[in-house]
Amino acid sequence: MKDAGILFGALAFLGLITVALHGNVDPATARRALEAQGLTNVRLDGYSFLGCSRGETYSTSFRALGANGKPVSGVVCGGFFKNVTVRYE
Fold first, then answer.
1. Is residue 80 within 8 Å of 57, Cβ to Cβ?
2. How far is residue 8's CA from residue 73's CA, in Å, rounded to a whole number?
3. What pTM, to 2 d.p., does this model score?
4. Which has fewest Cβ within 10 Å: 7, 26, 33, 59?
C-alpha cells in the first residue's frame, strides 16, 4: 500500500511538471499575431525557456517565412493582462 502511494505521488508530480512546462504556450494567439504581421508557413515549436521576460505568461517559439519570403524565427510573448510581443532572433 505504501508503494502505491509513492507511485501515485511521483506520477502526480510528473503531471504537474508537464503542465507547468507546456501550459505556458498560447498557439492560437501566437499564430494570429504572426499572420497579422504577414508571416506565412508558420510553424510553432513550443515553449521557449529564455525567450521572454519574467512577467510574461506565454512564450511560444516559431519559424516562418517573412513577408519578403525569407525564413525568420523568434518567439511570441504575452500575458493575461497585456497584448503579445513578437521577438525575432
1. yes
2. 40
3. 0.70
4. 7
Please write down the HEC assignment for all residues of the chain: CHHHHHHHHHHHHHHHHHHHHHCCCCHHHHHHHHHHCCCEEEEEEEECCCCCCCCCCEEEEEEEECCCCCEEEEEEEEECCEEEEEEEC
- The C-alpha cell at 73 is 524565427
Taking only the tens place, the pLDDT of each residue in 58-89 is 999 999 999 999 999 999 999 888 889 999 99
* Cell numbers for 2: 505504501
Cα 42 to Cα 72: distance, rounded to the nearest angstrom: 10
Phi, psi (5° rounding) for residue 76?
-105, 120
